[in-house]
Amino acid sequence: MPSRSSNKPITVYGAMAANFAIAVTKFIAALFTGSSAMLSEGIHSLVDTGNQILLLLGIHRSKKPADERHPFGYGKEVYFWGLIVAILLFGIGGGMSVYEGITHMNHPHYIGNPIWNYIVLGLAAVFEGCAFSVALAELLLRKEAEESFWEAVRSSKDPAIFVVLAEDAAALTGLAVAALGVYLGHKYNSPYIDGIASILIGCILAGVAFLLAYESRNLLIGESIRHGTLKSIDRLVHANPAVEKAGRPLTMHFGPNEVLLNLDVQFRQQLSSSEIAAAVDRLEATIRKKHPEIKRIFIEAEAFIQRKPTESTVSE
Hints:
The chain is of the alpha+beta class and 316 residues long. The chain contains ten helices and five strands; from the N terminus they run αααααααααβββαββ.
């Protein structure tokens, strides 16, 4: 099923608007209360806003048509910008939060009236929760029946889903840590607790950034489609009466909804060349109908006259 996120990235637009509004309110609260954890949360939301802009840039550039230098198109642009998002989340979001926490502990500043912190954190939790629920609904829509939730996250190929989902999960966790840091820091009149909370938020962001970088790396170097789809393709191939046997389907993602498929098929010997050509057309049509994300199919067919290997190449 094609993802709506890449065609109309509502999750990205919603997350970007929410993060910008939240960042402004967090910075205002940090200014009035002097909370290090709140300042780290403001940095986090500002970085997330920039990340959504980069994701939109990647989605836009990935839609450029194929040309002579890039015959398979620009679909992997979205994965490149997903990697940049991970780097920024680690370097700016995580790094600055840890730095702010250490600085706050070296030069302690006591938290004033924390009421504004609680108000901002509560509003932020509502907006982040809404953005998280939209991304989660999109993920569950694409989740296969036999997959667990974690497997669905790992197998998602759309940064508009898994990046937003990971960032919002990190944001909600960070909000809980910030609230706890503000509460304990104010209760025990200790600025060090607030600084520790800021460092913990930085560590959370760094951890999420590492996971996003790992997933983007896999997609950039060429990751296959999910296991369930591979099994489905294999069943479709062997269900064709003209097929004697077939090798394992070889696939690669060139974008969230653009997959390359290579098939090594041995057709029945008694078939003529025209019959095999017709069988190839039927096989391609069947696969595309069941899995429309497969845009290009290359079939290396055997059992032609004198069993000479022939390749059938089909493009969009």
